[in-house]
Write a structure and sequence with these properties.
30% of the residues lie in helices and 19% in strands. It has 237 residues and is of the alpha+beta class. The strands form 3 sheets. It has a 3-stranded antiparallel sheet. A 3-stranded antiparallel sheet has the order 6-7-8, covered by helices on one side. The longest helix is centred in the middle third of the chain and has 17 residues. The protein is extended, with a radius of gyration of 28 Å. It starts with 16 loop residues before the first helix and ends in a 9-residue tail after the last strand.
Length: 237
C-alpha cells in the first residue's frame, strides 16, 4: 500500500518485528494498574459484608438499645490493592422517639461513605456533638457527651477493625507502668473505693476522675501524680 508523505522528513528508522514487540511489551509493563477507588457512582453489589454493634445508653438518652449495622464493600478483591471500605449504615431500635433524626443521620453518613476519599473525619464530627441535657458514662467508665457521640464511637471502632484508622498502641513500658499502678491501687484501696463490673472483673476505681485525653474515668492520684490507668497519660510526663 502506498502512503503519500506530505510533511518534511526529519529522520527515519527501520522497523523490525522484534523492536515493535519490545515496544508493545514495555507499554503493557508501564501501564498503571486499574485500581478501583470508592466513588459515588460505584454500584451497590448484591452482597455486602456487615457488622452489627449494640449500644445501650441510659434511659435518659434512649429508652431502648440501638443496633448499628455497617456494611462494607470489598474493592479490588483478590489483588494487592484489596481494601475494605464502609458503604452504608443502618440504625435500628424499638424506640421511635429518635426515628426521624436517626433516619436522616444514616442517610447522610451512607452518602459520605459512598462519596469516597478520607471519611474518617466523620468520627470527630459525631463525637463532638454534645447533648444539652448532659452526657453519660458507658461501660468501662468512658464518657459519651451524647447519643450521637456514641454512634461516632461505634463508627470509629469499626474503622479500626477494618484498618482505616490506626489506634495508638501503648508501648511495653507504658503498659508495665499502668499495670503496676493498677496493682498498687488494688492492694492499697479500701473495698468501697474499688469498682467491679457485674461479672466481677476489676475496672477503674469509682473515685477516679475523667481523663481529658481518652475521655475515660480512670485518672487517680498516686505518688503525688495524676495518672490515667487507661491510656497512661500523666501530669508528671
Amino acid at each position: 500500500m502506498t502512503t503519500k508523505i506530505e510533511k518534511k522528513i526529519v529522520g527515519y528508522r527501520v522497523a523490525s518485528p522484534e523492536s515493535d514487540a519490545t515496544k508493545a511489551a514495555t507499554e503493557v509493563t508501564n501501564r498503571p494498574a486499574d485500581v478501583i477507588q470508592m466513588h459515588e457512582s460505584l454500584e451497590r453489589p448484591e452482597f455486602l459484608i456487615g457488622s452489627t454493634y449494640k449500644i445501650k445508653p441510659p434511659e435518659t438518652a434512649s429508652a431502648h438499645a440501638l443496633y448499628i449495622t455497617i456494611n462494607d464493600i470489598i474493592l479490588n478483591e483478590g489483588t494487592e490493592h484489596e481494601q475494605r471500605r464502609p458503604f452504608e449504615v443502618f440504625i435500628n431500635s424499638k424506640g421511635m422517639e429518635h426515628f426521624q433524626w436517626i433516619v436522616a443521620l444514616t442517610r447522610i453518613i451512607s452518602a459520605v461513605f459512598r462519596k469516597g476519599g478520607d471519611v474518617t473525619f466523620l468520627v470527630e464530627e459525631l463525637r463532638s456533638v454534645f447533648d444539652p441535657n448532659g452526657g453519660y458514662y458507658k461501660k468501662g467508665g468512658v464518657f459519651m457527651p451524647s447519643l450521637v457521640a456514641e454512634i461516632g464511637d461505634v463508627i470509629e471502632r469499626h474503622m479500626v477493625e477494618i484498618g482505616m484508622i490506626k489506634r495508638p498502641v501503648l508501648d511495653k513500658h507504658q503498659k508495665k507502668l499502668i499495670d503496676e499502678k493498677l496493682s498498687e491501687f488494688q492492694l492499697t484501696a479500701s473495698p468501697s473505693e474499688k469498682h467491679k463490673e457485674p461479672h466481677g472483673e476489676m475496672m477503674f476505681p469509682e473515685s477516679a476522675e475523667l481523663c481529658k485525653k481518652c475521655s475515660t474515668k480512670a485518672v487517680i492520684l498516686m505518688d503525688g501524680c495524676m495518672t490515667c490507668l487507661n491510656c497512661g497519660d500523666s501530669k508528671c510526663g
